What does this fold into?
Amino acid sequence: MGLGSRFASIVESRGPLCVGIDPSTDSLRTVRLPDTAAGALEFGRAVVAVAATRVGIVKPQVAYFERFGSAGYGALELLIREAREAGLVVIADAKRGDIGSTMEGYASAWLGDGPLQSDALTVSPYQGFAALEPAFSLAEASGATVFVLSSTSNPDADNVQRASLAGEMLPVLVARFARERSGDTKTVGVVVGATRDLAARGLTVSNLDGLLILAPGFGAQGASLTDISHIFGAASPNVIPSVSRSVVYEGLANAATAIEEHLRELGL
It folds into this structure.
């Protein structure tokens, strides 16, 4: 089963927190591991080990494995498999997006029955929302979730994301399309960064009603987990807050303590 079909039980048993797995050069240096595919795998396995008994969701950042080429993909394949075998839901943070058979290939790679199969996938709608249909269809068949970038936290995002059509800004349009395609299935969700006010991006809580919301930006990026209800209001029960750098900031030996502190911030 994918994320969409398991979300309610995950929240009930372990809460909504998602732990990112981001073996960047800086993070590997922080934890004194080599900046190699083997180092990234060791890093990922250490995070999975402490996450598996504390949370229900992990989110490997694909780019940090991809940079090592075939060895990096091999490491990621192992990590995804081991995380899922440990009972964790895996969100592949790959931000794929294309048209036609190319999008079918991406969907098959990340949501199909292959070595990279994950429970959810992040995608970009830049080439059109309907172009993402292969991923939506595959997610629907497997109970997975496709998270479409709606509003991100990076400062220069406004150059594109504040564009409007018929009086609605891009984040609102993406949220509406996601809601229409998902219905009540949680097949399609949205990515909404937590470091900026919803109103600043033209969003309201009603725009997000019923959608699963992957919310990066907590921890090292500055947003506080204690502010989720303030940021997302009535949409908060469907928010999946993500933390990554803050988990390993003081080394892998302290990762379990960092996760537990984040869970306390959530009142868990």
Notes: The chain has a mean pLDDT of 93.
